[in-house]
Amino acid sequence: MRGETLGEFEEIVLLSILVLGDDASGYTIKKELNQSADRDVSRGALHTSLSRLETKGFVKSKQGEGNDSRRGRPKRHYEVTNEGKSALHEAKERRDQLWNRIPGVRLELQYAW
């Protein structure tokens, strides 16, 4: 990791991309955030965050093919990098450590990656 930390919104964007897998485009990420995170996110805010995450090395994107339903405009597809996954692990670990310091609360740290 490049010494960068994740903001809360960046974290849920990364998690949404992981949930969506190969279907992670700006539209589907926005839809996932609206549904799962109960956040009404503007396209501008999302694209600013995606651009910032790409600059940090936490996501990579590639241009898809244009199609008639998008009037020839291609979709941009996003994928979380290994650095992004590490940043998510570190953010979760920091939060879990704080939660575990609360008397009477104990969380198990488990990761699927």
Give the full name of the CATH homologous superfamily of the domain at 8-81: Winged helix-like DNA-binding domain superfamily/Winged helix DNA-binding domain
| Main β-sheet description | 2 strands, antiparallel
Roughly how many Å is the radius of gyration? Answer: 16 Å
Order of H and E elements: HHHEEH
At CATH level 2, the architecture of the domain at 8-81 is Orthogonal Bundle
User: What is the spatial order of strands in the main beta sheet?
Assistant: 1-2
SS summary, helix count: 4
Q: Classify the helix fraction into a percent range.
A: 40-55%
The name of the CATH topology of the domain at 8-81 is: Arc Repressor Mutant, subunit A
Strand content: 5-15%
Number of strands: 2
Low-confidence stretches: none
Overall average residue pLDDT: 86
Shape category = elongated
Describe this structure in words.
By secondary structure, this protein is an alpha+beta fold. It has a domain at 8-81: Orthogonal Bundle (Arc Repressor Mutant, subunit A). 50% of the residues lie in helices and 13% in strands. The protein has 4 helices and 2 strands; from the N terminus they run αααββα. It has helices at 8-20, 26-36, 43-56, 82-100; strands at 59-66, 74-80. The chain has a two-stranded antiparallel ribbon with strand order 1-2. A hairpin with a 7-residue loop joins strand 1 (59-66) and strand 2 (74-80). Helix 1 crosses helix 2 (26-36). The longest helix is centred in the last third of the chain and has 19 residues, at 82-100. The radius of gyration is 16 Å and the shape is elongated. It starts with 7 loop residues before the first helix and ends in a 13-residue tail after the last helix.
